[in-house]
Specification:
This protein is of the alpha+beta class. Helix content is 35%, strand content 20%.
Length: 248
């Protein structure tokens, strides 16, 4: 059996990631976030995807929702916007215009005229100032997580680490330390305004090996893996038995 070990570099990386995320939230709060693709996003049948949101506690989660009665789904807004913005920024014509310091680029989403989500491909139509409209095609694989659809982009250079998953693991590590110090599960639950069941269902995350912890920190877990799925899994106390089959 191993005590959960987080080396200094890994711990520093976790703290830097969370700190960066807090700064971003201060600059642009979830409550005030706009939906820059509103009116520009369509499914393969020409139906508009409309902005929506859900709240959990004080956090507001934005989505774009399909109106298709048979294949209705919702896409996490921030993820979809990130994919589209990254595709525009890596376009050769955009990079040339940016290098030349061309005026009028403005907000990248203002350049988008229409985006269509097909089965396995996103068509992004955008126009640089003074130029013709062009289309970028981004292939993707859809992974369903309940009613939510996760976008998996082949050969994507970077993924945004799952902040919820990172925080859940850190909480489990903290709970383990408090229990070792003699605190009861109920006392911890009361202090954090959660149920004892929530703690017992998640505390096994403190057993994760450094390899798996680093994968989560770097956003290299399997894209369709949610925090809830990770929490439901029962982890062995032996790192050698923890099969990192969720690492992408």
């Amino acid at each position: 059996m191993h005590d959960p070990i987080v080396d200094d570099d890994l711990w520093a990386g976790v703290q830097a990631t969370l700190s960066s995320n807090r700064i971003k939230r201060k600059r642009r709060s979830n409550a005030a976030s706009r939906s820059p693709l509103a009116g520009k996003l369509y499914d393969t049948n020409g139906r508009k995807l409309t902005p929506s949101h859900a709240c959990k506690g004080s956090t507001r989660y934005r989505y774009y929702i399909s109106s298709d009665p048979k294949k209705g789904c919702r896409f996490p807004a921030k993820e979809l916007e990130r994919v589209i913005e990254a595709a525009i920024k890596t376009d050769p014509d955009y990079r040339t215009a940016e290098t030349q310091g061309r005026n009028g680029l403005g907000d990248d989403f203002d350049l988008v005229e229409r985006t269509v989500i097909h089965d396995g491909q996103i068509d992004i139509q955008f126009r640089l100032p003074g130029e013709q409209t062009k289309t970028i095609r981004v292939p993707f694989t859809a992974r369903r997580r309940g009613v939510e659809t996760k976008l998996v982009i082949p050969n994507e250079q970077s993924r945004v680490p799952d902040q919820v998953m990172i925080r859940r693991v850190l909480r489990a590590l903290n709970w383990t330390d408090r229990i070792k110090a003699g605190e009861s599960v109920k006392a911890i639950a009361d202090s954090e305004s959660v149920s004892s069941d929530f703690i017992t269902h998640n505390i096994d995350l403190a057993l994760l090996s450094p390899e798996i912890l680093r994968a989560i920190l770097e956003g290299k877990q399997r894209p369709d893996l949610s925090t809830a799925q990770l929490s439901r899994r029962r982890w062995s106390i032996h790192w050698g038995d923890q099969h990192p089959d969720f690492i992408s």
